[in-house]
Amino acid sequence: MFFQQILVAVFVMTAALAPAQQPKVKVNVLNVCTPSADEQKELSSALARVPGKLTFGTDYEVARGHSTLDQSANIPGMQPLPAGAAATADWVRVRREFPASAPFSNAQYSFSVDSKNMVETLVLRLREPKDLMQISIEDSASAVASPAAMLSANTPVSRIKLERFGKPSVALARCSGSEGGAPTDQTVYEPIFRAASSIMIRYRDGLGVRRMVPQELARLGAGAAAKTGVKKSP
To answer: Is the residue at 18 inside a domain?
Structure first.
């Protein structure tokens, strides 16, 4: 009987302590439509650090592939798939290394195209990430044109993201507003979007992707039906 009382007491004490031992979960929500003034300064400062003159080392990588898309994945620029539907995408990736003296270690550009969308992304990684780790710049367009048409149109950037060491990310994205509501006023962010778009233009040219990407996609059988116009995603 005494032993049973001890077991009951231990059980009660364990149950009482259990809630206090649960780890706390902190969720960071990115305000991508209207970042704060401090976040705007961080975005502008990070973009200003990107080398204006492109000088690369001898190491590089060019890859291409065909992938099945996960319909549960939240991919920027990609519209959600209907239930039970499957989709595939062709992609090209180009990576160039900066010289050892440069503050950035490498630049990686990727272009993907599926039946509805084309997305291009430029990622610049810092060599010694103390606060800022990498900068990601992205734009997208509807797949009503050929990849060559999109690349020649200098599609404006639609998303900028900073990955920081030990801190939440900072991001800015073009937002059209909620359904039935007024559009989001992003006039104050246009200088940041323009700076990012200018960087994307320089790296399209510097990496030679305007010609390389259509050629590599053609080897995969993608973008065979060339069209003249490009419809930009909102």
So the answer is: no
